[in-house]
Design goal:
By secondary structure, this protein is mainly β. 8% of the residues lie in helices and 36% in strands. The chain has a five-stranded antiparallel β-sheet with strand order 4-3-2-1-5. A hairpin with a 4-residue loop joins strand 3 and strand 4 (42-46).
């Protein structure tokens, strides 16, 4: 069971899948935690689902902005 509290702008690794993600928003009223995977996909956990995850805090990957980088032609 996960005892980590989600923090906006913090990075985590979901140990079962190996996915890296950043928490991008927390809605305390609804108990939802929005996250963004390294590849750009956005998702949401409810607080009960968050507690069921096997997580480790991690540093932001060096290339985490690459999916969002604009080319010089843009």
């Amino acid at each position: 069971m996960n005892t980590l509290m989600p923090e906006v702008s913090a990075w985590y690794q979901e140990l079962a899948s190996g996915n890296l993600f950043e928490v991008v928003a927390i809605d305390e009223a609804s108990g939802s935690i929005e996250y963004q995977l390294l590849g750009g996909e956005v998702g949401e956990y409810d607080s009960a689902s968050w507690q069921m995850l096997y997580l480790a805090p991690t540093e932001a990957p060096e290339d985490w902005r690459s999916p969002y980088a604009l080319s010089t032609e843009d």
